[in-house]
């Protein structure tokens, strides 16, 4: 009998199946064969352990029944096979750079009066590489995206799993037999919104050759959507001579590169300067009043926002009053045009003879409201007065005839 051992340093522990001793002669010459599993690219040790060996011929053959070694002499020109040990008790060869095509039963034969042999089956594991992820079509806001995770080569077939936010997403799994190896794919379809842009998913590949490890392919969703536009307005009231800066905040995927500024029903002022999303106008005047428009577009839509500019005049009246020793003369001012500034005058505590002008910003709406209220009150008083006067005269006329009769 012959004995065959296949040893793999890469995959402990080995799967060992020991054949029972087969007695073929009175001397009980026997071999034992052991099965083993090895990673592709690893090294296998094939051993023939002999019992009661009497010097008979020992032959080692590959799964195609080609003779590898004849009593320690190389018979097949394949440098990957090396004879490392030949003793009456143990014959051992090594096979380097193992591939799936080396799988099968290796024969260790002992030639006596009758031929005795045992077969060791060599199994090769092919771990998967990091899987790939492909999108069938673009992910557009409001639609669905189909993603496929692919493991093109493994043995046995790898197990694929989709993960998002720590949770598994069930996929449709398909498997193809490539002869010695398998290709596996897992496909998912998920709805996408704008908020999903940049969301992280991962496809994980599990395999016996990896143990507790796994191959992971990370994927980031790229969701396309139409742009949004918002003009960031300046704060406060703008007056003649001030400067205006408008910033157009734009989002979108892809991000619009061309941002257009315009003025509705008019052309942009000569002093307008555009720098990307920013519009600047220096030395404002009331001729700049109007509605300014910011527009942006990409392949998925167009958006716009507008800003209405209202520039107020900046007229202020300064009245100089000559001081006197005994009193301060009343101060009056008559602005030629309406103004946002209401002049107030106070005495300078450091110089009692000087008058300092102060301004308080009062919008036209407040002044107009107060004046309207005063006018309305005066009209109401006049109406009530006239009505009472008319009624009193009527009462006198009614009494005069009665007195005359008496």
Strand content: over 45%
Give me the count of strands: 29
**CATH class annotation of the domain at 30-125:** Mainly Beta
Low-confidence stretches: 1-28, 317-362, 398-406
Which fold name corresponds to the CATH topology of the domain at 30-125? Immunoglobulin-like
CATH superfamily of the domain at 30-125: Immunoglobulins
What profile does the largest beta sheet have? 6 strands, mixed
CATH architecture term of the domain at 30-125:
Sandwich
Percent of residues in helical segments?
A: 10-25%
Q: SSE string, helix = H, strand = E? A: EEEEEEEEEEEEEEEEEEEEEEEEEEEEEH
Estimated structural class: mainly beta
What gap, in angstroms, lies between the N and C termini? 167 Å
| Rg | 50 Å
Strand order of the largest sheet: 3-11-10-5-6-7
Shape verdict: rod-shaped
Number of helical stretches of at least 4 residues = 1
Overall residue-averaged pLDDT value = 79
Task: Summarize the helices and strands and which ones pair or pack.
Blueprint (H helix, E strand, L loop, with lengths): L4 E4 L21 E3 L3 E4 L4 E8 L5 E5 L5 E4 L2 E2 L6 E6 L3 E6 L8 E8 L3 E11 L6 E4 L3 E2 L3 E11 L4 E6 L2 E3 L2 E6 L4 E10 L8 E7 L8 E6 L2 E10 L11 E10 L5 E5 L8 E4 L2 E4 L8 E9 L2 E9 L31 E8 L2 E11 L2 H42 L1
Parallel strand pairs: 3-11, 13-21
Antiparallel strand pairs: 1-4, 2-4, 4-9, 5-6, 5-10, 6-7, 8-9, 10-11, 12-14, 14-18, 15-16, 15-19, 17-18, 19-20, 21-22, 22-25, 23-26, 24-25, 26-27, 28-29
